[in-house]
Design goal:
435 residues, alpha/beta, Urease, subunit C, domain 1, TIM Barrel, 2 domains, 16 helices, 16 strands, binds zinc ion
């Protein structure tokens, strides 16, 4: 597993010979899955002052920390999962019909906008569904969540401990008329609101560039939907297709594609031309990307988030995961929203990735759900792996299938292919916390 080993050596090291002053808690388990190093049978994690101080075999850590408080756990200890793309505000929109084979991506957008405009789903319904979904995310082992929304929530959702949520206000405007209004809004936003762009097909280059600069100034991630459908690429390349019709219907087509004198190969190529590719960019979906575009993403240190459940629901294709991994990229995983997915369950998303990419190892898929997500959100110093200096928030899972695992390979196969384990709880320094 060269990828995982290279990740291990990139992890920051702490002085292991430093003697902790505070009491040490030692959590022992039949299996410890650090992600950044091989799975440990009969393993242990030592915690002190809210941070992991050591991970290793149970016997050696018990000898090293002889005075520690010891807890015996069942099943598996692993880092919390990261959902790097969700729209909580669409949690009540579960009745958008799945596009039929003769319908386009734009037909699904029409259905979504129609339902939003009818006012059938009230502000209270939206808020209640969002809060319920957030609780469900934490109860399913999500420790970090990136939430994207078109409106600033009236009662902002906070995640129960140990989870953390980041909210990005998503802005869009496809033509010169809306660009002026959106740029004025960006200038009037307080710095306490982090904002991002929707997608290249819905947001002018001027808006995307202004939002990207603002994100850099405020030091937060810049996330946008990129290369989700072939229709998007068609618009950027030729100025034709269902998006052209859709924008014309709404009086928002001003003929900006194809760009005069520019041959656009795809959505990533377009963003590269705008100078938006860097380590602060999180490209969500990346289904319709070419090999040169994957190389561009890798060369610029961009982050990727795959949403296999949403892509399957909308019938837009399958992202070239093997190509991304071969170029040294470790994508994150996102569920997207209830408007474009049957369930917002990261365990299910791992199962879908296993089905779509039988050549990708289960260990790499588990690394995507943990470390890939933490890196995408710029939080790998705290989350994504069980390693010294990471936050002491461990996920403890168990099931009859996991108990029957004979070796590390079988264990990771079940973790990524078996869906959400029956038993799941969080462990912190003080012990267990219920979910
Ligand atoms: Zn989305």
């Amino acid at each position: 597993m060269p990828l995982l080993h290279s990740l291990l050596y990139r992890a920051p090291k702490i002085a292991l010979n430093k003697i902790p002053v505070s009491p040490v808690s030692l959590f022992l388990a039949p299996w410890v899955v650090p992600i950044s190093s091989p799975v440990i049978a009969d393993g242990a994690v030592a915690i002190c002052d809210g941070r992991i101080i050591s991970v290793g075999g149970a016997a050696s850590l018990q000898a090293q920390f002889a005075q520690s408080r010891v807890e015996n756990c069942q099943g598996v200890l692993l880092p919390g999962l990261v959902n790097a793309h969700i729209h909580l505000e669409l949690s009540a929109y579960r009745h958008i019909p799945q596009p039929t084979p003769d319908q386009s991506f734009c037909d699904w957008i029409r259905s979504l906008l129609q339902l939003r405009q009818t006012g059938e789903i009230s502000v209270d319904d939206t808020s209640e569904a969002a809060h319920q979904m957030l609780e469900q995310q934490c109860n399913s082992g999500i420790i970090l969540l990136l939430d994207i929304g078109n409106t600033i929530p009236v009662s902002p959702a906070t995640m129960q401990s140990p989870g953390e949520i980041t909210f990005l206000l998503e802005l869009l405007g496809p033509d010169a008329k809306s660009e002026e209004q959106v740029l004025a809004r960006i200038n009037s936003l307080p710095d306490s609101v982090s904002a991002t762009a929707h997608a290249p097909y819905s947001t002018t280059a001027g808006i995307m560039t202004a939002l990207k600069k603002r994100a850099e100034r405020l030091a937060h991630i810049f996330s946008l939907h990129v290369a989700e459908s072939a229709d998007e690429v068609e618009l950027l390349r030729t100025g034709q297709g269902c998006f052209r019709e859709f924008l014309e219907e709404r009086g928002a087509w001003d003929g900006r594609f194809p760009r005069p004198g520019k041959l656009t190969q795809g959505a990533v190529d377009y963003l590269a031309d705008l100078g938006l590719l860097d380590a602060n960019l999180l490209c969500v979906h990346c289904v319709q990307v070419s090999k040169p575009e994957v190389k561009l993403l890798a060369r610029n240190g961009c982050k990727i988030c795959l949403c296999p459940g949403s892509n399957r629901f909308l019938g837009v294709g399958v992202a070239p995961l093997e190509m991304m991994l071969n170029h040294g990229l470790l994508p994150a995983i996102g569920t997207d929203s209830m408007a474009s997915n049957e369930a917002l369950d990261l365990w299910r998303e791992m199962q879908l990735l296993r089905e779509d990419h039988p050549g990708v190892s289960p260990a790499q898929i588990l690394a995507m759900a943990t470390l890939g997500g933490a890196q995408a959100l710029g939080r790998q110093q705290d989350f994504g792996t069980l390693a010294p200096s990471r936050k002491a928030s461990l996920l403890n899972v168990n099931s009859p299938a996991l108990e029957r695992a004979k070796d590390a390979e079988q264990l990771v196969d079940i973790l990524t292919g078996g869906g959400q384990p029956e038993k799941l709880c969080w462990i912190s320094e003080d012990g267990y916390s219920k979910v």
